[in-house]
């Protein structure tokens, strides 16, 4: 029995390469589920036990009696989360695949659906449509490490709409592979589908790292989603022109044309594998001056020269919402360092800056002080006329005992020394 479980664990690790603590915990949980016998799974499904809320169908479950599985699942009202691996589906005939998707979609208690590892056997849009057409109470959809093919991509009838999925709030699609010849159209149709979800607040759409697609104007449709708070489009590559268009839509000016979008957006991650030109940096700076909701901005892959960095830093002097800024930068000169420090002297809200190639310890210590003081909200108390010195010192004692922070604080505020 011990050797058999070890063999199962090795197979599971082969199916699911560990990626951090969460992935490792998930792997252990799936290993435990794999140790459940086929008869026990069907018995638990049929008995509607409230503690049996998650169903895993992986390569370990190919010996399940399919008819019994479908019958038990069709009568179940307790399972809220289903994980289906491509290794399981590829062993089924096309007719049985259709029945599986229909049965899963009809499950009345289904809230979360995870489709993973459709590698040698691709996940087709028709299968996704069969589930989503029925699972109207789904809250979370996740597709990971899978080949995705949109069937009949030139046929309007093949489109999938999520307008009736009012419960859907989270969509996570990662490590997505699409065919070389139809990958761009498949990706755009997927974006079209996501843009119809009325109440989604988080969308992560990442293609595999070896499949960088230029982003289309259709992606801007995602910004029109009224409830969207988190948008992660990493590995879908922006050009400078696309970056400008994105930033223009994120401006929150009443006079802005086109009409500003993304008013609820708090977290956005984009990718641009070019050197950002002056126009793109100006657009980003103007957006940071006017946007009042964005709290996290990640820009992956792009390179920004000192002129662009200075403009962006100066724009952040008046921004009161952004807490995390990630930018790529190959060589920060003294001018860029001075711009960042000058910005932090006035910005009391930014808590984290992620830049590459820091080589000045003094510069690092200075920005570390400002960012830490911002994160503890001490500097906001300092500029508050109604805040007492006692309030400031009490907050300082609670959050830090570092002498270098005290030194910076007292050097900049000599009136505190009594």
Mind explaining what this structure looks like?
It is a single chain. With 418 residues, the protein is of the alpha/beta class. It has helices at residues 2-15, 20-34, 38-47, 66-74, 86-89, 94-105, 125-132, 183-194, 240-249, 278-290, 306-315, 334-346, 361-375, 378-382, 389-399, 403-412, and strands spanning 54-57, 81-85, 112-116, 123-124, 140-149, 170-177, 202-207, 213-214, 230-237, 267-271, 296-300, 324-326, 352-354. Strands 1, 2, 3, 4, 5, 6, 7, 8, 9, 10, 11, 12 and 13 form a 13-stranded parallel beta sheet that branches. The longest helix has 15 residues, at 20-34. The radius of gyration is 26 Å and the shape is elongated. Residues 1-19 have low confidence and may be disordered.
């Amino acid at each position: 029995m011990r050797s058999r479980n070890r063999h199962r664990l090795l197979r599971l690790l082969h199916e699911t390469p560990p990626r951090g603590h969460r992935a490792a915990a998930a792997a252990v949980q799936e290993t435990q589920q794999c140790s459940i016998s086929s008869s026990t799974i069907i018995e638990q499904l049929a008995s509607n036990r409230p503690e049996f809320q998650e169903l895993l169908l992986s390569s370990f479950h190919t010996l399940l009696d399919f008819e019994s599985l479908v019958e038990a699942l069709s009568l179940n009202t307790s399972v809220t989360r289903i994980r289906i691996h491509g290794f399981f589906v590829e062993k089924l005939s096309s007719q049985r695949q259709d029945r599986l998707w229909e049965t899963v979609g009809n499950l009345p208690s289904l809230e979360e659906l995870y489709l993973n590892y459709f590698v040698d056997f691709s996940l087709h849009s028709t299968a996704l449509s069969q589930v989503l057409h029925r699972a109207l109470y789904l809250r979370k959809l996740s597709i990971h490490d899978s080949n995705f093919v949109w069937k009949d991509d030139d046929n309007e009838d093949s489109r999938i709409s999520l307008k009736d999925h009012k419960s859907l709030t989270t969509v996570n699609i990662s490590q997505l592979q699409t065919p070389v010849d139809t990958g761009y159209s498949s990706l755009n149709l997927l974006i079209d589908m996501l843009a119809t979800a009325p109440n989604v607040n988080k969308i992560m759409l990442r293609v595999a790292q070896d499949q960088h697609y230029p982003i289309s104007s259709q992606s801007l449709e995602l910004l029109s989603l009224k409830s969207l708070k988190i948008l992660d489009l990493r590995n879908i590559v922006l050009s400078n022109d696309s970056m400008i268009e994105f930033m223009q839509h994120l401006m929150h000016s009443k006079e802005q044309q086109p009409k500003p979008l993304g008013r609820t957006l708090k977290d956005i991650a984009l990718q641009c594998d070019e050197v950002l030109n002056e126009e793109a940096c100006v657009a980003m700076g103007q957006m940071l001056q006017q946007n009042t909701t964005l709290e996290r901005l990640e820009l992956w892959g792009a390179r920004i020269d000192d002129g662009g960095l200075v403009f962006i830093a100066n724009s952040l002097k008046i921004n009161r919402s952004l807490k995390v800024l990630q930018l790529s930068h190959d060589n920060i000169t003294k001018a860029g360092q001075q711009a960042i420090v000058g910005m932090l002297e006035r910005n009391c809200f930014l808590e984290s800056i992620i830049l590459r190639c820091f080589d000045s310890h003094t510069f690092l210590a200075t920005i570390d002080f400002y960012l830490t003081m911002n994160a503890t909200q001490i500097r906001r108390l300092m500029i508050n006329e109604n805040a007492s010195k006692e309030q400031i010192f009490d907050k300082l004692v609670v959050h830090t005992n570092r002498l270098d922070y005290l030194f910076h604080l007292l050097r900049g505020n000599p009136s505190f020394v009594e």
